[in-house]
């Protein structure tokens, strides 16, 4: 709660920065902006968004652009820091005058962006951060949309998987002490209660914590045979190492914070760790996925899909840009308000899902475009994050 109060004070501290001249509303440019982590341990998140957005924009421009104009992509680094995300939001909207801003990797940043997005009135389309309240924020009209996973639905998806594999019905929950982790607590508790299972350990940790032995021991001694992770790769690595240290070997199922480089950091200890995704470039690809992978190879020089970190981010951003382009066409103008309203009219057969429609103005939950039916379960196996059905781990579920 104190963090939310701080962020609100931070945003309201510079009211002049949010004074938007009336004429500016008719002067949006054909650019799509993004504030994401380009530096730091989660820099692969920003890179994934950049890849997906850039390729989608190239495809759109090859067909003549949107409303006769060439789209461009503008990305700034927030390094996962909410104040920088707020500043980048202002810059993208008021200096670059972009028509839409894409959300980045960190939920703490997305939650902080709710205030400036609505103060300015620029449509926001998240493509990675999954915090429920970032999008279900009580605003009307709501300018926050998402083409990504949502923690409320992710919690249900992971708990359903936990219920399938648990022999004791006892589940442990490990979550980072941030807006993302704390925001997931009520979602996970509700999902566990609905499944009729028991949450016997609820353990938190901070970024950069090196030893989580105490948390692992409490979960082990409580008898939890499944552990849910809301962690980033760096802390996920410390968690699995601490569990190994105390001889605790539960089935681990995580939100996609551990989808980047856990296999690299934890080595064999990551084997068997299951992770939710919206898309994977690993394994068998349909024609759309294969075509996009070939473009990624050509543009970014990758040799193998295993080099992709956070493939869901690429796919989500790719679909989001195509949805935004259609909304601009339907709006008939590069105008924040008109584009926001047009987002509800878009239907798109995308890479991740068939969006029919992408968003629904009548349903507050449907500011989110990707539904739980489109979520996929993947698993770390020898340093690669593979679709679970294509591994030996899938046969045991």
TrEMBL record:
<dbReference type="InterPro" id="IPR028081">
    <property type="entry name" value="Leu-bd"/>
</dbReference>
<keyword id="KW-0029">Amino-acid transport</keyword>
<dbReference type="InterPro" id="IPR000709">
    <property type="entry name" value="Leu_Ile_Val-bd"/>
</dbReference>
<dbReference type="InterPro" id="IPR051010">
    <property type="entry name" value="BCAA_transport"/>
</dbReference>
<dbReference type="Pfam" id="PF13458">
    <property type="entry name" value="Peripla_BP_6"/>
</dbReference>
<comment type="similarity">
    <text>Belongs to the leucine-binding protein family.</text>
</comment>
<feature type="signal peptide">
    <location>
        <begin position="1"/>
        <end position="26"/>
    </location>
</feature>
<feature type="domain" description="Leucine-binding protein">
    <location>
        <begin position="32"/>
        <end position="354"/>
    </location>
</feature>
<keyword id="KW-0732">Signal</keyword>
<keyword id="KW-0813">Transport</keyword>
<dbReference type="InterPro" id="IPR028082">
    <property type="entry name" value="Peripla_BP_I"/>
</dbReference>
<protein>
    <submittedName>
        <fullName>ABC transporter substrate-binding protein</fullName>
    </submittedName>
</protein>
<dbReference type="GO" id="GO:0006865">
    <property type="term" value="P:amino acid transport"/>
</dbReference>
């Amino acid at each position: 709660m104190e963090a939310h109060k701080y962020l609100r004070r931070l945003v309201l501290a510079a009211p002049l920065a949010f004074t938007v001249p009336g004429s500016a509303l008719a002067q949006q440019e054909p650019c799509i902006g993004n504030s994401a982590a380009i530096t730091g341990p989660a820099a692969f998140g920003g890179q994934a968004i950049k890849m997906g957005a850039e390729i989608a924009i190239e495809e759109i421009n090859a067909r003549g652009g949107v409303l006769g104009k060439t789209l461009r992509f503008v990305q700034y680094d927030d390094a996962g820091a909410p104040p920088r995300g707020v500043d980048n939001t202002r810059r993208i909207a008021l200096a670059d005058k972009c028509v839409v801003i894409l959300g980045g990797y960190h939920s703490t940043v997305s939650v902080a962006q709710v205030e400036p997005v609505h103060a300015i009135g620029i449509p926001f389309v998240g493509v990675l951060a999954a915090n429920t309240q970032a999008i279900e924020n009580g605003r009307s009209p709501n300018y926050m949309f998402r083409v990504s996973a949502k923690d409320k639905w992710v919690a249900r998806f992971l708990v359903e998987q936990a219920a399938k594999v648990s022999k004791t019905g006892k589940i442990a929950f490990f979550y980072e002490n941030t807006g993302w982790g704390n925001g997931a607590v009520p979602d996970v508790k509700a999902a566990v209660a609905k499944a009729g299972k028991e949450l016997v350990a609820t353990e938190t940790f901070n970024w950069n914590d090196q030893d989580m032995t105490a948390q692992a021991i409490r979960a082990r001694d409580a008898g939890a045979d499944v552990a849910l992770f809301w962690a980033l790769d760096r802390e996920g690595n410390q968690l699995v190492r601490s569990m190994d240290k105390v001889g605790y070997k539960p089935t681990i199922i995580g939100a996609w914070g551990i989808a980047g480089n856990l296999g690299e950091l934890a080595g064999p200890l990551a084997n068997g760790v299951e992770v939710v995704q919206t898309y994977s470039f690993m394994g068998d690809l349909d024609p759309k996925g294969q075509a996009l992978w070939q473009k990624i190879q050509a543009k970014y020089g990758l040799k193998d899909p295993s080099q992709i970190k956070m493939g869901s981010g690429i796919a989500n951003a790719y679909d989001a840009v195509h949805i935004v382009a259609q909304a601009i066409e339907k709006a008939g103008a590069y105008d924040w308000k008109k584009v926001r309203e047009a987002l509800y009219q878009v239907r798109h057969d995308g890479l991740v899902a068939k969006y029919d429609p992408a968003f629904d103005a009548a349903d507050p939950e449907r500011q989110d475009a990707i539904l739980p039916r489109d979520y996929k379960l993947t698993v770390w196996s020898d340093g690669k994050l593979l679709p679970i059905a294509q591994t030996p781990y899938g046969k045991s579920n």
